[in-house]
Structures are given as C-alpha cells and as structure tokens.
Amino acid sequence: MTVALLVNSGPGAGPHAGPNPGRIGPNAITRVAQALPPRVGSGATWALFERAGLLHHLQQPPQDMVDEAEVRALHHELQLTLGPARAGDVARAAGRATGDYLLAHRIPRLAQRLLRNLPAPLAARLLLAAVRRNAWTFVGSGEFSASAEFGQPVLLRIRHNPLCQGLSSSVPACDYYATTFERLFQLLVHPQARVFEVACEACGDAECRFEVRW
Length: 214
Description:
Strand 3 (143-147) and strand 4 form a beta hairpin. The protein has a four-stranded antiparallel beta sheet with strand order 3-4-6-5, with helices on one face. Strands 1-2 form a two-stranded antiparallel ribbon. With 214 residues, the chain is α+β, with helices and mostly antiparallel strands. It has one domain: Alpha-Beta Complex (H-NOX domain), CATH 3.90.1520.10. Helix content is 50%, strand content 13%. It is built from nine helices and six strands.
C-alpha cells in the first residue's frame, strides 16, 4: 500500500489538490459547534457564533471547505469570550472529534491496520507523509512541514498559521491542531503519544511548532 492511499481527502483530492489555499475543512467549525453546548450551554453557543459572524454555520453546518477567515473568526472568538483555558478545553474536544472523524471517514481501515502493526518510528514517517500530502485541507494559506527520523521527537511546523493571524496570547493557542495530531498519533502510531506545542505564532514566535513524543 502506498503512502498516497493512507488518507482519502474526499472528492477532488489529489497530489495537487487545493487550488484555493485560503480554505479549510469544515471540521474546524462543526466540531467546535459540537463541543461548545455541553460546556457553555446552547444560548452561549449561539451568542458566540453570532459574534463571530457565523450563525449561518450553526444553523446549517458546512459540508464543504470554508473560508479560513471564518475559521479564524470562530477560534479567535473562543479566546475572547472564554479565555485561554476554557477556549483550550473546547478546542481540544473539537480536535479529538476531528481526529475521530478522520479515522472514521478519511483513513481506510486497511491503512489503519498497517500503521498499527508497524514499529512506531516507521508508522510515524508514513503517517506524516500522508498528512503532508493533505495539509492543504487544514492549514489553508499556511505552510505545513514535518520531520520524523528514527527517533524522537517528531516535529510538526505550521508557518503563517491562519488561526493565529491577528491573535496575541501569552500561552500557545493551537490546541485544536495539537489535539487533532495527538489523536491520530495515539491511535495509529503509539497509544502513549503526546503532542506538545513548543512555539506559537500567537506568542510572537516565528512558527507554530509541535513535538510528538511517546
């Protein structure tokens, strides 16, 4: 099985997919919409989406790629309304749900079995090759890169992160990305995999950088 078959990006996806780099998959909105009500209530969820200018996405969840500006508006509003700690909790729940969605709908069962039966360093390299190929679906106009030698940590980088543009934070603010990565690594590479954001553009760093360890 080739690396190209490890992730199914959906209709129209391919090595040169994503001609409009300013768009992101709908999970970045729909999974937040699912994570908010149990934590803040339905009324507060509607109010937050309204302030972000995205009430239409709450009323009719998007099914296709969305403008990255909408994703940015929602994730910024989480920070403004809830503060870093509670916003991080929501983003982590949304990230876990996104990881579960990818496992259920985008990564073939055969590929999942293959990765789980490989030594963790090799599984990590194959998974990252597929993630690089499909990075356009989650970084929009940003730039994703990753490196995985036969050792730890695995390094993931996002430059010009669309979720961090215009955001200033005293702590790393990419819980959504970190937890999505962590969910995939835990279930496909090693059950004790953890992802740590060690640099963040919202904190003034040159890039958002994540370390994966197990």
